[in-house]
Amino acid sequence: MTSNSLLLRSLRSVFTTANSRSQRPRNGFSNSLSSTIEVVEERCLLSVANAWIAQGPAPSQAGQVENIANGEVIGAIHTVVTHPANANIVYIGGSNGGIWKSTNATAAAPTWTPLTDSLPSLSIGAMQLDPTDTTSETLVAGVGRYSSFTREGGARTGIYKTTDGGTNWTVLNGGGTLVGKNISGVAARGNTIVVSVNSADNFDLANIGIFRSTNGGATFTRMSVGNGSGATGLPEGASYDLASDPANNAILYTSIVFNNTASNNGIYKSVDTGATWTKVSDAAIDALISNNTSNLEITVGTSDNVYAAIINNGNPEGIFRSGNGGVTWTQMDTPQTNENGTDVGLNPRGRKGPGPGSSPEEIAGGQGSIHFSIVADPANANIVYVGGDRQPSAFGDTGSFPNSIGADDYAGRLFRGDAAAAAGSQWVHL
Question: Using an 8 Å Cβ cutoff, are 235 and 199 in contact?
């Protein structure tokens, strides 16, 4: 049965049901009803048969942003990938908006094209351009839910792969292995694809961690097993990130949380594209990882510089830097501003004024599990950037704007860190 027939059958059912619930109609009303069905039938055939014309994309106005005309905003963007040689080419992955591409990103008014509207899910959790593809046309994206509040999204269907810059896509799930898994990171290396998983429809240690394919995504093998005493060296647990070394395609970093043995949690490093792993986090990092850890993000810069951030209860608990590929670590300051005597970090929680029923109105915050970002500077080994979910207001996070940095609304927080600076002065708000 065609989609047109199904639509018409549904419409007939609606009219017939409505008629049967009323008293027996007079002949005039019956004829009128019959005519109405015929008219609707013709219109439905016309609208289904003809092509639809896109009326978007377009921004919403009056959003909580600053220095943007009309307060224009769009849907949440979870991940961004830039072309290694062409600054005009940028890919973005939306929390529930799919993958978009710009080929004039440096223009005053760049344009964007949706690439994945026809794919099974628009919930994009991670993306990476394959560094082994000299054309930089191969992009692998992992499906994951990262929306605010209840993390609603599309079906967790695995990964998407394009080898022509987004014109054509292949949906890969490893024969079903990745179905239902929330992908937090991807590493694409030709036929070798590694993904990190932090959650799943059926949340069980057997369904999360690191998964690896050596046949282009046709099948995936779980690398996170038991207490890590197996051949891979990687224990089972939630893997919140998968970071690549920009100078060495074989080096990867990931995090393991929620292992049944606390000493197995931490940061792990692979030097063979995810085949085997070694724990590299120190006692100070491990001490901050607990059942309250909701995120552990990693970024790799130049010259073996690695940064890691631990998020507990939705807020940064500690940020660490290694200058030698994870051999040793130093804890940095925690980025924050002082609001009328109160130190406020990246993901402040708060209330403001009386809300409905004279109760204080909750202000969104403390969402570092999904609204936290960290990236190492590609040129300066000592510089790192972190982002949070909203600005605090002026007085103890209960007053009015502007706050201490001049922000006039609840826009996101952004700081630049300098690991070479003295403790107590390592972070500058942006």
Answer: no
The answer to the question of residue 330 being in a domain is no
Q: Map residue 215 onto helix, strand or coil.
A: coil
Are the C-beta atoms of 384 and 402 separated by less than 8 Å?
no
* In a domain? residue 50: no
Contact predicate 48/41, CB 8 Å: no
DSSP 206: G
- Token code pair at residue 146: 């990262």
CATH code, domain with 182: 2.130.10.10
Query: Which has the closest alpha carbon to 181: 162, 206, 217?
Result: 206
416 secondary structure, DSSP code: E
27 within a domain of the structure (yes/no): no
Q: Kindly tell me the burial class for residue 380, based on how many C-beta atoms sit within 10 Å of its own C-beta (0-12, 13-18, 19 or more).
A: middle
Query: Residue 115 in 3-state DSSP?
Result: coil
Cβ partners under 8 Å of residue 91, min gap 6: 80, 81, 82, 99, 100, 101, 115, 127, 129, 139, 166
Q: What is d(CA 253, CA 307) in angstroms, rounded to the nearest whole number?
A: 10
Reported pTM: 0.84
SS3 of residue 45 by DSSP: helix
Question: Domain range for residue 257?
Answer: 81-279
The neighbour count for residue 375, using CB atoms within 10 Å, is 17
pLDDT tens sequence for the chain (430 residues): 444 444 434 434 433 333 333 333 334 334 443 444 434 444 444 555 678 887 777 888 888 788 888 888 888 899 999 999 999 999 999 999 999 999 999 999 999 999 999 999 999 999 999 999 999 999 999 999 999 867 689 999 999 999 999 999 999 999 999 999 999 999 999 999 999 999 999 989 999 999 999 999 999 999 999 999 999 999 999 999 999 999 999 999 999 999 999 999 999 999 999 999 999 999 999 999 999 999 999 999 999 999 999 999 888 999 999 999 999 999 999 999 888 777 888 877 654 444 444 444 444 467 888 889 999 999 999 999 999 888 887 666 666 788 888 888 777 889 999 999 999 999 999 9
Nearest-angstrom CA–CA distance, 270 and 301: 16
Beta bridge partners of 143: 124
Number of domains in the chain: 1
**C-alpha span between 366 and 390 (Å, rounded):** 9
**Within a domain: residue 225?**
yes
Q: Find the distance separating the first CA and the last CA of the chain, reported in whole Å.
A: 58
H or E stretch including 35? helix 27-49
